[in-house]
Design a protein that fits this description.
The chain is flat. The chain is 89% helix and 0% strand. The termini are far apart. By secondary structure, the chain is mainly α. It has a domain at 34-101.
Length: 103
């Protein structure tokens, strides 16, 4: 098999189609595939938007990129909230410890 420039996309499409078909036939795997596809679509939108901006179609690229980021932020909100809370706690503790060192 020769390696051409377009083979990477073909392999990605074959793997993605296989995962989707496997998800339809096995109930447990289908739940996992649904979540995986839910994250892959916004990531693909971000990549397509970036590609559009780089190729010169800035308006369409930025629209797709921003939509992908917003959708991905919505999907990752379960992780962003607790990370923000932990960051605020660490920042507050560091502010208290800095105040004690100054005196």
């Amino acid at each position: 098999m020769r390696v051409n420039k377009g083979n990477g996309l073909a392999i990605v499409l074959i793997v993605l189609g296989s995962i989707m078909l496997l998800g339809k036939f096995t109930p447990f795997f289908g739940h996992f595939v649904g979540h995986l596809i839910g994250y892959l679509i916004p990531i693909a939108m971000i990549m397509l938007g970036y590609y559009g901006v780089k190729r010169g179609n800035a308006l369409f690229g930025w629209i797709v990129l921003v939509l992908g980021v917003l959708i991905l932020l919505g999907k990752l909100s379960w992780l962003i909230g607790p990370l923000l809370a932990i960051g605020l706690i660490i920042f507050g503790v560091s502010m208290l410890s800095d105040r004690r060192r100054r005196y």
